[in-house]
Automatic annotation (TrEMBL):
GO molecular function: short-chain fatty acyl-CoA dehydrogenase activity
Name of the protein described by the UniProt record: Butyryl-CoA dehydrogenase
Domain Acyl-CoA oxidase/dehydrogenase middle: 120-215
Organism: Peptoniphilus olsenii
EC number(s) per entry: 1.3.8.1
Annotated ranges, domain Acyl-CoA dehydrogenase/oxidase C-terminal: 227-375
Keyword set includes Nucleotide-binding: no
Limits of the Acyl-CoA dehydrogenase/oxidase N-terminal domain: 6-111
Lineage, top ranks: Bacteria, Bacillati, Bacillota, Tissierellia, Tissierellales
Cofactor: FAD
InterPro entries hit by this protein: Acyl-CoA_DH_CS, Acyl-CoA_Oxase/DH_mid-dom, Acyl-CoA_Oxase/DH_mid-dom_sf, AcylCo_DH-like_C, AcylCo_DH/oxidase_C, AcylCoA_DH/ox_N, AcylCoA_DH/ox_N_sf, AcylCoA_DH/oxidase_NM_dom_sf
Similarity comment text for this entry: Belongs to the acyl-CoA dehydrogenase family.
Sorted UniProt keywords: FAD, Flavoprotein, Oxidoreductase
């Protein structure tokens, strides 16, 4: 394992690898065909404690470093990016509370995850993608309750989450400074999920609209202060981008592994095709770029653990790693030749899975703006 991880994480990594080989790969191949969310798989993952990896130790977690968790997430993404996305997106749903919530809110969501639940983060709307400030979801205080109305879209775990962190406007006249963040239980009246998206890739994850129709939650369910929702959301995404880079590395590593195995076995002109220097160079470039991406992820996560600034580093990690995942997946298909284009072989799926990582948690175009803004502030 290229990450330098603790002994505890090394033991967990072996367990995760076996679980992925025995439970994840075949189940997710079938889910990729049908588009059905494999609930039983995630129940088994919860029993193994894999949903709880990002829970802080003081709230019942195992106390792993972010680098330790990255090694486990990469292994999951190698097996299936949709499986890893579901678990990582649940951690995304936790982050606003862990960043700005009360101890009671933190314990509440951690208990739900410990019991096998999932979280979801609700920012994107049909008319508000990269421009998150254009959202129209509202929250109005009515006595001792907030009443939420609006529609969020492309929400990972949208129909299966136990709780949602929702961005809504509490004062439209203030623009982004009028946005607030709310903790919404799945049981809240007026909350529902829309139709599941028929996606190109990561088809073993659940993606739906989340609809709020006079959805009532206690006034105490605001996360942080009124008007801090946009800031909390951006802090959340700054963290989440490094994890999306981590999953992208897992996709790329799977592409390398599959291409290496195939080119050693495939014989043309009387010798394995890996004996051709052109393919050796191709594989070397795939490995070089994937390792650079992995170390960019490690750098961002280490800075988080050390309490240092990481916005730029997280943006770089996600942007570079997702671009490399697409490139490596494409090169893996090329190494397979015509077989790579067939769904009977594993590499075409990698390309379909990789594409979304250039889009969600901030498109790579937006992330280049983030990096450029950091440069201009120097």
């Amino acid at each position: 394992m290229p990450y330098l991880i603790s002994e505890e994480a090394q033991d967990l990594l072996q367990d995760v690898r076996k679980f992925c080989e025995n439970e994840v790969v075949d189940t997710c191949i079938e889910a990729d065909k049908t588009g059905e969310w494999p609930r039983e798989l995630y129940e088994k993952a919860a029993e193994q404690g894999y949903l709880q990896l990002e829970i802080p130790e003081e709230f019942g977690g195992v106390g792993l470093s972010r680098i330790d968790v990255a090694a486990l997430f990469e292994e999951m993404a190698k097996a299936d990016a949709g499986f890893a996305t579901t678990i990582s997106a649940s951690g995304l749903g936790m982050k606003p509370v862990l960043i700005a919530g009360t101890d009671e809110q933190k314990q509440y969501i951690c208990d739900l995850i410990m019991d096998g639940g999932l979280g979801a983060f609700c920012l994107t709307e049909p008319g508000a993608g990269s421009d998150a400030s254009a959202g129209t979801t509202t929250a109005v205080l009515d006595g001792d309750e907030w009443v939420l109305n609006g529609r969020k879209c492309f929400i990972t775990n949208g129909a299966v989450a136990s709780f949602y962190c929702v961005v809504a406007s509490t004062d439209k006249s203030k623009g982004v400074k009028g946005l607030s963040m709310f903790l919404v239980p799945a049981t809240a009246p007026g909350l529902s999920a829309g139709k599941e998206e028929d996606k190109m890739g990561i088809r073993s994850s659940n993606t739906t609209d989340v609809v709020l129709e006079d959805c009532r939650i206690p006034a105490s369910n605001i996360i942080g202060k009124e008007g801090e929702g946009f800031k909390i959301a951006m802090q959340t995404l700054d963290q989440a981008r490094a994890w999306m880079g981590c999953l992208s590395v897992g996709i790329a590593q799977r592409g390398i592994d599959e291409a290496l195995k195939y080119t050693k076995e495939r014989v043309q002109f009387g010798k394995p095709i890996i004996k051709n220097q052109s393919l050796q160079f191709k594989l070397a470039d795939m490995d070089i770029k994937t390792e650079v991406a992995r170390q960019m992820v490690a750098n961002a996560l280490t800075r988080m653990d050390e309490g240092l600034d990481y916005s730029r580093e997280s943006a770089i990690a996600k942007c570079y790693a997702s671009d490399i995942a697409m490139e490596v997946a494409s090169e893996a298909i090329q190494a397979f030749g015509g077989y790579g284009y067939s769904r009977e072989y594993p590499v075409e799926k990698l390309l379909r899975d990789a594409k979304i990582f250039q889009i969600f948690e901030g498109t790579n175009e937006i992330l280049r703006i983030v990096v450029a803004n950091n440069l201009m502030r120097r």
